Here is the input.
Amino acid sequence: MDIIKNIQQAAAEGVTALFGQAVQPQDIALTPTRKEFAGDYTIVVFPFTKFVKKSPDAIGQELGEYLKTHLPAVADFNVVKGFLNIVLSDTVWSGFLEEHFAQADYGRHASNGEKVMVEYCSPNTNKPLHLGHVRNILLGESTARILEAAGYDVVRVQIINDRGIAICKSMLAWQKFSGGATPESTGIKSDHFVGDYYVEFEKRFREEYAEWQQGETAGSVYEAQKKEGQSPEQFFKDYKDKYFNEHSALGREASEMLRSWESGDPETVALWKKMNGWVYAGFEETLAAIGASFDKYYYESETYLLGKGMVEKGLAEGVFHKKDDGSVWVNLEDVGMDQKVLLRRDGTSVYITQDLGTARLRYDDFGISRMAYVVADEQNYHFQALFEVLKKLQEPYSGGLYHLAYGMVNLPSGRMKSREGTVVDADDLMAEVIAEARAGSQERGALADLSPEEQESIVRRIGLAALKFHIIKVTPRKSMVFDPTESVDLQGQTGPYIQNAYVRIRSVLRKAEEDGMGGSASQEYAVLQEQEKELIRSLYEFPDLVARAAAEYDPSHIAGYAYNLAKAFHKFYHDHSILRAESEAAKAFRLKLSRMVAQVLQTAMGMIGIEMPEKM
Here is the structure.
């Protein structure tokens, strides 16, 4: 039953019959009626004034009469300032419920035969996953699940940044300061263990830099390079990177280690493999706890030389141009950007060159028609340029590229800094929200009759729901603050609040008799309450919302929908009895309605990676 398409079709026929103008059904603008007016859906009639010499109200009145006469689903209508509000008969909504209440896959679309890749997580191997990664992972995983629900064949990938100076900092610090310690010997989770040495390097480097600033060389540098009026404090704050590259003993050792790795030095490569192995083991443990998995891993150490062939081919075809110094560039001025280097004058690649090659490699691996990159919004320009270059190269997937950009995520205490060790690790964050959920559960005492294992399973679901929903509910492009305590509130716009609606329904259904739930008595329920119709309208809209969330790569649509549905059910439950309804017909109808609400809540929350408990 497609209620909206039926109305659009009948309205298009009505416009033709009444006003002699052919219009397409999909061109009939139909929206849910605003709550302050009577009606289910509203047709905007203003566009018809272009070819009908009548007022919008007159057009709305005539079209309303036509629909009421020719479409049995329309029970009544009203016109308010050019807006035609249509009231559907109760049988439309009760018929929809009877048709779909037991449909376990309701909201999911049939396969559309299209394959899409989602890249997310993509960490560095010098530190554990942190709060910023958590937002990335949750956005990527939920986007992948929503795309699957919308009918796409989804490939999940990540590219691991396993090379570069940051990795060598951790390696050097372990080599110099660990005394041979390992994750096993210290009992520290392996990725945290490596991250501790990244922080240790920064600590030792700062000490070295502070000591150097007291010497004669630093004084000479300051006098020779300072800007007018620049204090020593400001100068040396800005000079830090130059010091690392030109004066620092630690910086020199780290750079030498990087050169040794690039030249394939066996000892350096062996150390790199050992420490990266520790990090990967820790990553897998964290990803399993979050509920994310990948079909393929790409490694920067294996892809950083890719793309040069594509650039050389583009140069030969006149897509790119070479400057006098031998560097290769692309001109993006025709799309409002500037010129961008693709190969340096010595023939080496830049970051975008690697991404060109990786995109081609993924197409060769999977035959995808779309790629969505989940990367922070600070990389907006990079991806805009990458996509335009791929279009110029006429890559077969270039029309399906999308950058799912997201804003920064902070804590109430402010920003985090990896090098200073002030980052909140993903593992610690999960432990904190689970602890908050455990404390709340113990206070309520609702799980006291369950075994410790069952209690812990439910507490974990509640805690992770709090974390995931609190992040996913925010539109990706917005920056956000994550508050662990606020996230587990059973009364706020939270994951546990939605879980509570599901648990409430499951409790009702367990108490109900099977005949009452599925029997034919519900078909005798003739006059629906407004809150019942509101719930069914929301259920009806779910498949279209899934398609919209997929098209816009925006999981917050699903989170917002689940919250609004849960809120509507909580209000309905408060205002209307289910098991003690005024008649057997009302009871049977409300049990079916409750069952479908629970099913859709479970499906929607599953799309954003949240499991529903039976008790809480």
